Amino acid sequence: MITVFGGQTSRSLRVVWLMEEMGLDYRVRQVDMLSDEVDAEFVAANPATYIPVLRDGDVTMVESIAIMEYLMARYGPTPMAPAPDDPAFPAYQQFLHLGEAGLAALMMTPIVSRFLAPEAERDNWGAAWAKAAAEKRLRLVRRQLEQAPYMAGDRFTAADISVAYALELGRQHEVASLGEAEHAYLARTMGRDAYKRALEKSQPEAAEA
Ligand SMILES: N[C@@H](CCC(=O)N[C@@H](CS)C(=O)NCC(=O)O)C(=O)O
Fold first, then answer.
1. Do 173 and 105 lie in a common domain?
2. C-beta of 51 in contact with ligand 1 (< 6 A)
3. Ligand 1, atom 16: nearest CA belongs to which residue?
4. Candidate from 50, 53, 60, 168 with most ligand 1 atoms within 8 A of CB, to mutate
5. Which of 4, 93, 161, 191 has the smallest set of CB atoms within 10 Å of its CB?
6. How confident is the model over 15-53, as pLDDT tens digits?
7. Quick one: which of 165, 155, 128 has its CA closest to 15?
8. Per-residue pLDDT for 209 more than 90?
């Protein structure tokens, strides 16, 4: 069975959400990122010690977007991934990656600066730059939402899983200013049954059930 090492609000949610959309069988193996104890199985799976990690038979992978691409290629075809000859494909591919590389990854610097950095280092230039860079990239999401309900057009795809996760991260930690269209988009995407199931199954108490 597929195992995802993750946590309830981590990027493992992207992977679990996708598996719920695809109807795949999996289990979530909780990783407590705040614990001081060494989690030997997790460290063996990812010596860089970040989540999510996917284990599928002999395959061990990190990076949420790469994992999603692997799952859709390995267990598809799926409506979550438009085919390369589909007119929706370029926008799909762009936003699938923008959600992490252009949004969530940039948001992490202001988030960890605000919540984890020593007091004197909270307002640092790098964090302000990363926040501004993410805000600029959000204009691409905003422009897309003026034209279509989803990142790839009329249909929900994995690009929405990628971008919605990032928007929610920015919203929760107040590092992104979301307008009405972005809030409506979050309600539309995170209102899906598959997302609700993913959230439930990512809770620590549900993990080993
Ligand atoms: N680009 C990676 C980022 C993964 C990442 O930053 N994960 C966070 C949790 S959401 C983490 O484990 N951070 C701890 C660390 O980096 O040490 C992905 O998309 O999977």
1. yes
2. yes
3. 50
4. 50
5. 191
6. 999 999 999 999 999 999 999 999 999 999 999 999 999
7. 165
8. no
Q: Are residues 37 and 17 part of one domain? A: yes
Shared domain check, 104 and 50: no
In terms of domains, do 147 and 184 share one?
A: yes
Residues 67 and 113 in one domain: no
Do 185 and 122 lie in one domain? The reply is yes
Say if residue 182 is in the same domain as residue 200: no
Reported as a single tens digit per residue, the pLDDT across 122-151 is 999 999 999 999 999 999 999 999 999 999
Q: Which atom of ligand 1 is nearest to the CA of 10?
A: 10
Residue with the smallest CA separation from ligand 1 atom 18 is 63
Q: What is the CATH number of the domain that holds 66?
A: 3.40.30.10
Q: Where in the sequence is the domain holding 169, given as residue range(s)? A: 89-192
The rounded Å distance from CA 105 to ligand 1 centre is 8
* CA 80 – CA 192 distance, rounded (Å): 13
Say which amino acid occupies 192: R
What six digits make up the tokens of 158? Answer: 């994995």
Tokens matching residue 92: 């799909």
